[in-house]
Amino acid sequence: MSDVFISYAAEDRDRAARLANALGRRGWSVWWDRKIIAGQAFDQAIERELESAKCVVVLWSKHSTASEWVKNEAAAAAERGVLVPASVDGVKLPLEFRRRQSADLADWKGEPSHAGLQALCEGIANTLGESRLHQPVVPEVKLIGRKWWWTRAALALVFLAVASGLYLSGPWRSQAPPSSAAGLADLVAGTYLGNVMADSKGSSRSDIEVTVIKLDRSRVRVTSDYRRVGTVELSLTRSGNKIMGADGDSPFLVDLDRDPLTLAFNPRNELAYAGTRRK
Prior knowledge:
The chain is an alpha/beta fold. It folds into 2 domains: about 5-130, Rossmann fold; about 150-275, Lipocalin, CATH 2.40.128. The chain has 6 helices and 13 strands. A hairpin with a 7-residue loop joins strand 8 and strand 9 (about 230-240). The longest helix has 18 residues, at about 150-170.
């Protein structure tokens, strides 16, 4: 279940990517990428996410107002009372949606202080029932060269890579590991079901299983039936209620505050996976 589902026309993909980045930096989980898989499974994935999302943001444009797909998604969200509209080019909205106030993102280029973005975020927070507006928590990711369509999972992995680098280079690395490291593998072991949100050598994929196997009290083997994930062995460390990989080039993060547990994993820094543990 995502906090925010972004509905948009294919021609507005760049705008959707920019918005997903901005919302992810405010700590919300975002589902938006339509490049998961083709065919019926693709439709089922969208329908599942649309029905479970806590808030649905529709990006209205000259393209999306002509899209029956987007209008159907907006109608489904309105029926559930979770629709938060935004206009990206000043187009007149379809008649049935004109009674709702839309955030104006027509001239938004990604700046966090933009009035339209702030209005949109306030609408999202209100729909989610949050008492205060989330502020950015992660530096913005600049996409260079090939366009990777990062969601919150990818942003979390970037943050994790920085945090891991600080940890590995810090003076505390020379100290003996804390006793709390014992049993970390038991806490994270299990099978996770989720999505490959971005891949440097391929496309996004949904319904990917990743299995975390205990090797000893603080070391695990991560495997998957999807060959791009492969097999990786990791030592674990803990910071608060976050369990992270302590070495190697495959950032790994499990959030113990989530129920079910969430896993963000970036094997060999080649792809971004996010999933939840099966109970």
